[in-house]
Every structure is written in C-alpha cells, then in structure tokens.
Amino acid sequence: MADDRWLVVGLGNPGPGYAGHRHNVGQMVVAELASRLGTTLKVHKAGATVGEARVRPGGDRIALAVPSTFMNVSGRPVAALLKFYSLDASKLIVVHDELDLPFDTVRLKTGGGPGGHNGVRDIIAVAGPDFVRVRVGIGRPPGRQDPADYVLSPFAKAEREALPSLISDAADATEQILTDGLLAAQQRWHAPRGAPEPTGDKG
C-alpha cells in the first residue's frame, strides 16, 4: 500500500443545478483545496474528477476527488479510486454536509455509522466505516421543512455571507489532518471558539 498517499473525497450531486446546494458543501471544500494546492480536477475513469497534489513540499501525496455520480451512489467511484491508488479506508477522508451540526461548525471523526447521510452510507457499504469524516455543519431545516428538500436547496442569504469562512475552515481542518494527524486536528477544531490552540508535540 502507498503509505504516503491519501484520498480526499468531497461529496455532492453533479451538475450546475446542484452546485450551490447545502448538500454540495463537501464538493466546495475540495474545490477550495484544489485551488490552494494548485491542482485541477480532471475526469477520471473511476467515475470522478480527480486532481493530485502534495499538501506541502515533500509531504504526503493526496488525490482530491469529486464523484461524478449522484450522492446516494457515491460508493462506486470511491471504491474504484481506492483500488486505483491501492489504498484502504484508513487513508480515505470524506468531506460532507452534516444536518446534526449547527451551520458554520466543523467536526472531525473516524468510524461510526452514516448518521442518516446517504452518500456516507453508500461509501460504508463498499469501504467499511473506518475512514475519516470532515463533517461540515449545515444545521437542521427550519419549521417542518423536509430535510431532503432542505439539503437540496441553496444557502440562505446570511449563510452565503458566512459560507466562504466555513469552507476555508473545513479546508484548513482537512489539511491539518494530513499534516498533523486526526487527534491534533480534533483538539483544534473541537475546542470552543476563542480558546487557545493546543501547544506541544503534534505528532
């Protein structure tokens, strides 16, 4: 296995009609990472668009990917990319929207169930649960709105103003997983806002 490579996948639905939806925030984060790292996502035979980069000079190699399939069948292209790069789920990071987190919140975890997220569920079905998730909070729908309708709708005006900061935070968190490890990233991103960052050996 190529120990120095990671696969980072941003979930969403394909096509311009879905581009600004809450459900596509994972794709937005991967686009931000691609821009930062100077790579372009190109069509790949696995059923995704993929760009390759290093998170820092001499650092781990990463493949940034966005499935070309609809959200609920994200597993097939992810499985194909893991096979293409000879990786297992321990080297996979999936960035996705999370209803159960308040908007403008980023949380990191590995393992566990899908939490009602169909894209994550489909990836678990093909790769098992032991991959890292970058969970980007979009909040619960207001009133009695159906969650399925809510995730397939654009961000509200106030959310759109804060969205660049949220995407930047999620991209920062993903980069920190790659450079410092999951635990160090959790210590930073799970701390209350305004708390001092942890110091010491980041391993």
TrEMBL record:
Site (described: Stabilizes the basic form of H active site to accept a proton): D97
Sequence positions that bind tRNA: Y18, F70, N72, N118
Keywords recorded for this protein, A-Z: Cytoplasm, Hydrolase, RNA-binding, tRNA-binding
One biological-process term from Gene Ontology?
Answer: rescue of stalled ribosome
Per its UniProt record, what PROSITE patterns does this chain match? PEPT_TRNA_HYDROL_2 (PS01196)
GO CC entries: cytoplasm
Coarse class of the primary localization is: cytoplasm
SUPFAM superfamilies xrefs: Peptidyl-tRNA hydrolase-like (SSF53178)
List the Gene Ontology MF annotations in alphabetical order: peptidyl-tRNA hydrolase activity; tRNA binding
Q: Where is the site described as Discriminates between blocked and unblocked aminoacyl-tRNA found in this chain?
A: N13
Where's it found, cell-wise? Answer: Cytoplasm
> Which EC class does it fall in?
hydrolase
Q: Which reaction does this chain catalyze? A: an N-acyl-L-alpha-aminoacyl-tRNA + H2O = an N-acyl-L-amino acid + a tRNA + H(+)
The record's comment on protein family reads:
Belongs to the PTH family.
- Outline what the protein does: Catalyzes the release of premature peptidyl moieties from peptidyl-tRNA molecules trapped in stalled 50S ribosomal subunits, and thus maintains levels of free tRNAs and 50S ribosomes. Hydrolyzes ribosome-free peptidyl-tRNAs (with 1 or more amino acids incorporated), which drop off the ribosome during protein synthesis, or as a result of ribosome stalling.
Assembly and interaction partners: Monomer.
Q: What is this protein called?
A: Peptidyl-tRNA hydrolase
- The record lists the organism as Pseudolysinimonas yzui
Q: What is the lineage of its organism?
A: Bacteria, Bacillati, Actinomycetota, Actinomycetes, Micrococcales
The gene is: spoV
